[in-house]
Amino acid sequence: MDIRLPQLAEGADSGTVVSILVAEGAQIQKDQTVIELENQKAVAPIPSPAAGTVTKVHVKVGDSVTVGQLLVSFTEEGAGAPAAPAASPAAPQGQAAQAPAAAAPAAAPASGEYRYVSKSGLPPPASPTVRKMARDLGIDLTRVRGSSDGGRITTEDLRTYITALQSGGAFAAPAAVKKPALPDFKKWGSVARKPFSPLRRAIARAMVDSWTTIPHVTQFDDLDVTHLQELVAKHLPAYEKQGARLTLTVILLKVLAAVLKKYPVFNSSLDETANELVIKEYIHIGIAVDTEGGLIVPVLRDIDKKSLLQIAKDLKSLAEQTRGRTIPNEELQGGSFTISNQGGIGGGHFTPIIHAPEAAILGVGRAKQQPVYLKDGSAPAPRWMLPVSLSYDHRIIDGADAARFMVELAAVAKNFSENEVKL
Amino acid sequence: MPIEPIQTEIVVLGAGPGGYAAAFYAADRGKKVILVEQDERLGGVCLNAGCIPSKALLHATELIRESDESAKRGITFAKPEIKLDHLRAWKDSILQKLSAGVRGLADRRGVVVLHGRGHFEDSQTLRVETADGQQFIRYQTAILAVGSKPVIPPAFDLGNKRIMTSTEALELEEIPENLLVVGGGYIGMELSTVYATLGSKVVLMEAMGSILSGMDADLTRPVLQYAEKAFKEIRVGTRVLKMSTSGKQIKVISETAGQKKEELYDGVLVAVGRSPNCADLGLQHTKVQRDEKGFVKVNEKQQTADPFIYAIGDVVGGAMLAHKASKEARVAVEVIAGESSAFKDIVIPAVVFTDPEVAWCGLTENEASAKNITVEVARFSWAASGRALTLDRVDGMTKLIIEPETERVLGVGIVGHGAGELISEGVVAVEMGATARDIAESIHPHPTLSETLMEAAEAFYGKATHTISRRKGKNG
């Protein structure tokens, strides 16, 4: 049997081998992790589908792999060596049998070295017309992804494949605008070069996409969080007894949920194809987490329905998983709004980039005590002021909406009920 | 006296269903073609001593078998009177018509037909012994399509006309009262059916452990049930050791499980296989190579080891079937014409015209298990088919061999009345890479036997209308 790179998640179609946990000849158990892969947002363990003995490891640490690529071969326990149709013409380059042919989803052929390998040792399903066309054109149908039932290759699939070949994009990386060559920095002093990791590249791609496709406007404000700070200070010990940490962020999430409910456009996505606004009826907030490798945004779900204690606990575990890079890919998806909190480090206002396809993002700095005139003519009082920066998609949100959002945020924070905090 | 050779682009040697098809395809592509045939009639074994005459006789005798069954349905017939001369003449008239038809098609295409025996002088020269003397053909490419002939082991060949091969049996000279058929393959079984219906007491001897060996057992079972009823005896695991003339009869010594037996028969039909017609062709003057069984070796482009000679049909071995030969003809001509054609991954259906018929295409269950391929088999018994009941022919079964992961139909097997006509849907399904759902979702007219294909597909999903499946619903 072979272990190939499965489709991990949407967009996660490649990665880098960061560790190989088995050696050739080693016994492995079902679901045992054989390889760890750094893919865009996390380290993904690749488990073995069955118990057996490893016969060959086809990759090495640092290799870039794509979906469907052969990682490890092993003989299944008890089953003996499967009668792999080794002589099968459908399994060239020494690829043994057993590709998840059925699992191969319909897709453009651009996803690299796709190979159809049938368990039955048969060529890929395609009508005689398609096979004749392929033969005439000298195209190997095992490289063409079939989109029809049972992975059948249609004339359209073949055409798509040929078009991709013609555009030269079939196996090349997505066409990038050619960048001017970098100067030789060494002319001016010594330099060190470090690899730009897949995670970093994913971040870069996402940022460029968002920044170049969404017209950003950023609204600055300072929230008076004195009341919230007092609540945190007062109830912190009770939460600690429950193994949770009550922080300003935890309460802020709850505050945000209320504001998003009132202004759902901030909790939406623009569907340009359908010309519709997709309003999400759930409040799933992505929390930008700083890790050694870079920025990762896990998602805390159903904030509006959870107690503060629950949010505190979830946030803690999510942050731990993220920093440990063990977070499952699903946990990185489905956010409807994002909060980027620099408060733990310091910082004031900044211009966060929207986590597309969301509509807005809230940047949070560090609260500072400042003198504030609470009433006309009164002496300034020391208040905890929190710098917040709201970046929003100006295609769907106007400045007035953003101002209303900020006002509401301040109001909810100011009037946050102690009952919600009390355990 | 040196004779000026005829120049041509393509010469086809043998005018059977492979050879004449090759000649026609080539002519249709504007090639100058000469078709060489030693027999007076075109069409080869298929048309003259195989598929066509045997099917004519099977059809003619089916009425007798049917009338026997009819009594229980309240319609009785008098015992049929068999006028053998009439039957033979009718059969021959069909062969005549078809052969003339092939001739007409050749003429209209400008294919030159040369009657005579061909002999290779070298890789590009064929000598033909015609009634008018020798002719030499200098060609660019030759397509060898000389076919095969029935094997008759030397120990059996007494020169006694009571010992027949399929060729003589189809001539229908007489109906032996006691007929021994040696060989329980499809030819032996089909001809046994004809002779048993015409009144012979048929004893069938087969060296292997079963009749129609190699075929899936569930497909051959109904045929065996018929044969057990219609034949006097079926003796499997039996070897014929010796035959000798004994007055007007043949003395046959056979051995079953170490027990020797001596019997007298009025006629013997030997149907133990076919061998390629490679003798006296002058192949030694070419680079053509043959395998250990004498078949001409070709690659998937139908090319022999000689760059000027292609070969198709029975002479290259494999399934010795007319439709395989015709397809190979097409491949050979396409390759000669410079196209990238190949006989590869092509589904060859097979039909045994017994009663009931057996037909299959693509992967069989036996093949799947021999190759260790995991398949799921969906069966539909004709006992649940309304059409089969109205035909009083519930002795049938339709099955699909399916790749579990993709639900792709890899093979189809059918036994039952008219299975030969039904299998073509299976061929299209397998060639198209259809899934079981494709078949299940296509409406099949009611009431017809074709519904059994749809119901077998539905059975795969546990949802056949007319059976209760053991399977629970699958994927909705």
Description:
The complex is a heterodimer of chains A (423) and B (476). Chain A is an alpha+beta fold and 423 residues long. Chain A folds into three domains: 1-82, Beta Barrel (OB fold (Dihydrolipoamide Acetyltransferase, E2P)); 97-174, Irregular (Dihydrolipoamide Transferase), CATH 4.10.320; 205-421, Chloramphenicol Acetyltransferase, CATH 3.30.559.10. Helices cover 25% and strands 22% of the residues of chain A. Chain A is built from eight helices and 19 strands. In chain A, strands 9, 12, 15, 16, 17, 18 and 19 form a seven-stranded mixed β-sheet that branches. The longest helix of chain A is centred in the middle third of the chain and has 16 residues, at 198-213. In chain B, a hairpin with a 2-residue loop joins strand 4 and strand 5. The relative contact order of chain B is 0.11. The longest helix of chain B has 26 residues, at 84-109. In chain B, the strands form five sheets. In chain B, strands 1, 2, 3, 4, 5, 6 and 17 form a seven-stranded mixed β-sheet that branches. In chain B, strands 8-15-9-10-11 form a five-stranded parallel β-sheet. Chain B has three domains: 6-149 and 275-336, 3-Layer(bba) Sandwich (FAD/NAD(P)-binding domain); 163-272, FAD/NAD(P)-binding domain, CATH 3.50.50.60; 356-460, Enolase-like, domain 1 (2-Layer Sandwich), CATH 3.30.390.30. Chain B has 476 residues and is of the alpha/beta class. Chain A binds chain B through residues 82-83, 85, 100-102, 118-128, 131, 135-136, 138, 146, 149-153, and chain B through 339-342, 345, 363, 368, 371-375, 403, 405-408, 410, 431-435, 437-438.
